[in-house]
Amino acid sequence: MDKSNDHIENLIICYLNGKCSEVQKQELLDWVNASEENKLLFIRTKDIWDSARQQPDCSNEQLIDFYRRLVVRKEKTPVRHLLRVASMAAMLAVAFVAGILVYSYLLFPEARQIVYSVPLGSKASVELSDGTKISLNSGSTLTYPDNFRGKTRTVSLTGEAYFEVSSDKSHPFIVQTRHFDVRVTGTQFDVCAYDDDQLASATLFEGGVELSGKSFGKMVLNPGERAVVDKINGRLTVENADIQTITSWKDGKFYFKNISLPDLIKRLERWYDVSIKLPERGIDTLKYSGRFQNQETIWQVLDALKLTSPIDYTRENLREFKLQYLPGSANDKKR
Amino acid sequence: MSRFDQIYYRYHRQLLLFSLKFVEREADALDIVQEVFISVWATDRLNYDEAHLKSYLFQATRNRCLNYLKHQGIMRQYEKNAALQLRQIELVHYQSGEKSLIETESVDRINQAIESLSDVQKEVILLSRFDGLSNQEIADKLGIPVRTVETRIFRALQKLREKITSTGHILLMVMGFFRRSEKMN
Fold first, then answer.
1. Interface of B with A in 131-160 (CB under 8 A)
2. Contact state of B173 with A37 under an 8 Å Cβ cutoff
3. What is the CATH number of the domain that holds A273?
4. What are B105-111's contacts with CB under 8 Å, separation 24+?
5. Number of domains in chain A
6. Which residue does chain A place closest to B132, by CA atoms?
7. Which of A305 and B182 is assigned the larger pLDDT?
8. What is the pLDDT of residue B183?
9. Averaged pLDDT, B117-134
10. A106, A244: one domain
11. Which of A21, A47, A151, A175 would best serve as a mutation to test chain B binding (most B beta carbons within 10 A)?
12. Is residue B99 located within the same domain as residue B170?
């Protein structure tokens, strides 16, 4: 503490006031790290500052917000709400990606970030500078540097992608999504993290991956396992994966197994680039399994749904459909 | 009022203040607190005795803040972020046992301590912490250099801490520092 006490006092208060330059913050950090005594003085001074913060009590409105969140969690079909959240999330994601771009241009003009977006109704594949191959499903966005520098190889994803990561033990490959990060050294896996899905998942085919997320910490996934994160309650479940179903999309096939109607509809919307309105109620218990070869038209798929479940559809516009629930129809009993 | 609502009203402000120590964006801090309450909602944690429940709530808040900071660290991995590191150091410190005044003291007690400061010290604390003026704004208002304002605030904070915490070597150490600083003036 030889550096004049006054100087450090001023520095601490300047920092607490939020007016410090980066250089000053670094100076404070160095001083805090210099001794246990310094660290305690900083932490305790900041603590009294923080505890005297003028913070209006907002517990009333927050409690209402809390119950609102619970209601959304309990409803089985928070579709419209999710869509609203999804559009906000999409805006945030755009802002976030734009932020990263600007940021990386400012600090690392040579490490350019490439944003690769696949339109709805199509698929694409990308090969990265390290030889990693990535297949991207409809409506997905991958952000990656033109050249990997630094200790890790980091990309970020919204949507679904199948990764064949080229092996490099000393440079872990990290896929960031909005809900979890996947860390590997060399392996094959599938990540499905669309912004407008309630569930996000990672499936491992070969090798080993480590998953980390805000809601569940860290976990290791074994080959053949699929980890599913529920974005609404943050819960993580691990199940045995149906490999054929999960990877079908990258071979142009459309397989699905035991999924809910809202999930199925979302996939159809991405796959065929159409918009399909769901019925308000009555669809909670419907589960679907099926195999399409992607030769079918959207009409044929909807006809198949109509034949196997108590729903009907009408076309509202060129690429817009609306489903209706028909309770007690013959179809209902057939199932 | 349900037991849950009582707990919510009793601890919400404290947990929010505590989160704001580590999480800059208020919206994120509010989210963290909601998640903490979700983790006690409709569970038998509601039946914990008061002390146990309180320590659970603070511990859960700490863990979520730490995850949040780690996530920030991943996001800004290219950035050498001193502020982020300072927050992490602070948070880790609270995991090792010492409790924040936010956890141990009531608003009333902190306000009483502020009331009992000398007029000069009370003035800067009220302008800074209650009126939300920046140090520069306070300096302009009082017609004194900003460094003087900073020094005054620092001394006032030490005095407050001294008044609030009762005894122990912590206090002596801070006072020791405080006296040395006084002499230098």
1. 132, 134-136, 147, 149-151, 153-155, 157-158, 160
2. yes
3. 3.55.50.30
4. B105/A51, B105/B164, B107/B13, B109/B164, B110/A51, B110/A52, B110/B160, B110/B164
5. 3
6. A54
7. A305
8. 44
9. 92
10. yes
11. A47
12. no
Q: Which residues contact A100 (CB under 8 A, 6 or more apart)?
A: A113, A143, A156
Expressed as residue numbers, the domain containing A273 is 253-335
Kindly state the average pLDDT of the residues B41-61. 89
Q: Does B74 touch chain A (CB under 8 A)?
A: yes
Of B34, B150, B161, the CB nearest to A9: B150
pLDDT at B65 over 80: yes
What is the token pair recorded at B173? 């150490």
Residues B95 and B169 in one domain: no
**Two tokens at B182?**
């006084």
Q: Can you give the residue range of the structural domain that contains B121?
A: 107-184
CATH of the domain at B163: 1.10.10.10
Q: Are residues B95 and B139 in the same domain?
A: no
**Residue A240: DSSP 8-state:** E
Angle between helices A36-51 and B3-22 in degrees, nearest 10? 130
Do residues A10 and A76 share a domain? no
Q: Do B177 and A5 touch (CB under 8 A)?
A: yes
According to the model, what pLDDT value does residue B153 have?
96
- Which residues does chain A have with pLDDT short of 70? 1-3, 70-111, 294-296, 328-335
